[in-house]
Design goal:
The structure is a single chain. The protein is built from 13 helices and 22 strands. It is α/β, with parallel strands linked by helices. The strands form 5 sheets. Strands 1, 2, 3, 4, 5, 6 and 17 form a 7-stranded mixed beta sheet that branches. Helix 1 packs parallel to helix 8 and helix 3 runs parallel beside helix 6.
Length: about 475
């Protein structure tokens, strides 16, 4: 469609979670809205290379390997004995196609114009769009930058799209490797390490820091690393990769470490951070600055240094989750055209889709200790729950942190099957400043994993009884 010279109340750069929800929120407030993105990229990184494909891949792996049933049927049990990349890709591509249709339908239903192309600033209110039919310009009273991120790349790493790939290149693998080197133990690297080891791949995970997930409850991290080691992941923590080489004759990849060690594998996945796409917008033309990682600074209302330009999602940095990006995008639009409440960052849930899962909301033990806040905790373990036994969940726990004086809940931490689902019960209690009495007095369906809240609640209250 021809858009050159058109004027909109809001132009959104990017159609990922932040862009979608920001555009729809503004449209529902009666504003004229356009979203700029490549037609083939509708849904953004979340849909094409990030959240949707990686989490769908995880579900496909759990299903085809029968991983969660092995406590009943033995460690060699599998629904399909020989699993190929094609088996996994089928499910991923099916979900991606359906989700893309959902996104298109939502934008269309709300009257949001879709402009096919990539945008860059030509001025504070002017955007140049390079599309399939050439270059055009649009004017905008407000702009929402929601352009997402891409994998960070080290120029010294010989990426070839086959043996050495980044996290966007998982789909280019032609075969499952027997031995995989994963460089980077951030959320994405650890998630993929846990998935590939479930497929029977020998995984070596290399991380420059001496520990993983510093923002996660230490007991939960210890439980995860124990499970991953038991499944076969080799951790090389406190190790820096200095060089990567590919031997075409042997079909092997070698990672050389600063300590002098050499790690060998059939493939290497480089998962060291993300680079925000703010550096591709010619932001200086709008009076904006981006940092070395392409991120754009915003205030509590998601406004940049230029008041009519806002930013949301991964381009503004931590926590860079699809769930929080959706809410940031919606709030950014609301702040432009209405007056919502600020985002309560302490109530943002965090989900890590490792095998098993991790999820949390509120404060953890490290934070409370550092702030000198007294706390007590109650724990429920999956092997104490009838539902946990039915599912064959050999590991898993729910930990609730609370104030021993007022009994108010301070944080909830879950590890195990469906952790990212059950954490929301704790989130609701936190949002309403609930206490441990709620878990003691509430009847939960039996048998369910939600019953863990009752068990953990009683455990915590028993610890302070008579004190």
């Amino acid at each position: 469609m021809s858009v050159s010279g058109a004027t909109y109340d809001l132009v959104v750069i990017g159609s990922g979670p932040a862009g979608q929800k920001g555009a729809i929120a503004a449209a529902k407030l009666g504003r004229r809205v356009a979203v700029v993105d490549r037609r083939s990229w509708i849904g953004g990184v979340c849909l094409h290379t990030g959240t949707i494909p990686s989490k769908t891949l995880r579900e496909a792996i759990l299903y085809l390997t029968g991983f969660q049933q092995r406590s009943f049927y033995g460690k060699d049990y599998a629904l399909k004995q020989s699993i190929s990349i094609q088996d996994l890709a089928f499910r991923v591509q099916t979900v991606m196609a359906r989700e893309a249709e959902v996104v298109r339908a939502q934008l269309k239903r709300n009257g949001v114009a879709m402009i096919d192309g990539t945008a860059r600033f030509a001025g504070p209110r002017t955007l140049t769009i390079d599309g399939p039919d050439g270059t055009s310009r649009v004017e905008a009273d407000h702009v929402l930058i929601a352009c997402g991120t891409r994998p960070a790349r080290d120029p010294g790493i010989p990426f070839d799209g086959d043996r050495v790939i980044d996290t966007d290149g998982i789909e280019t693998l032609r075969r499952l490797p027997r031995e995989l080197i994963v460089v980077g133990a951030g959320v994405i690297g650890v998630e993929y390490a846990s998935m590939f080891v479930a497929l029977g791949v020998e995984v070596t995970l290399i991380e420059q820091r001496a520990s993983i997930f510093d923002f996660v409850d230490r007991e939960v991290v210890e439980a995860l690393t124990y499970c991953m080691r038991r499944n076969g992941v080799v951790f090389r923590l406190g190790e820096k990769v200095t060089a990567v080489s590919i031997s075409e004759a042997e079909g092997r990849v070698t990672a050389e470490l600063e300590s002098g060690k050499r790690v060998h594998g059939d493939a290497l996945l480089y998962a060291v951070g993300r680079q925000a796409n703010g550096d591709q917008l010619e932001a200086g033309s709008a009076g904006l600055e981006v940092d070395a990682r392409g991120r754009i600074a915003v205030d509590a209302r998601f406004r940049t240094a230029v008041p009519h330009i806002s930013a949301a999602g991964d381009v503004v940095g931590f926590p860079a989750l699809a769930s929080t990006s959706m809410e940031q995008g919606r709030l950014a639009a609301e702040h432009m055209f209405a007056s919502p409440e600020p985002l309560r960052s302490e109530l943002l849930p965090y989900g890590i889709y490792t095998i098993p899962e991790i999820s949390m909301v509120g404060r953890n033990e490290q934070e409370l200790t550092a702030a000198k806040v007294p706390y007590e905790f109650g724990v429920a373990r999956y092997d104490e729950l009838a539902k946990g036994l039915m599912l064959g969940s050999e590991v898993g726990l729910l930990k609730i942190l609370f104030d021993p004086a007022t009994l108010e809940v301070l944080g909830v931490h879950a590890f195990g099957d469906h952790a990212t689902e059950i954490v929301h019960i704790g989130q609701a209690v936190l949002a309403h400043h609930g206490t441990m009495r709620y878990f003691r007095d509430t009847v939960f369906n039996y048998p369910t994993l939600a019953e863990a809240y009752k068990v953990a609640g009683l455990d915590g209250l028993n610890k302070i009884a008579g004190s």
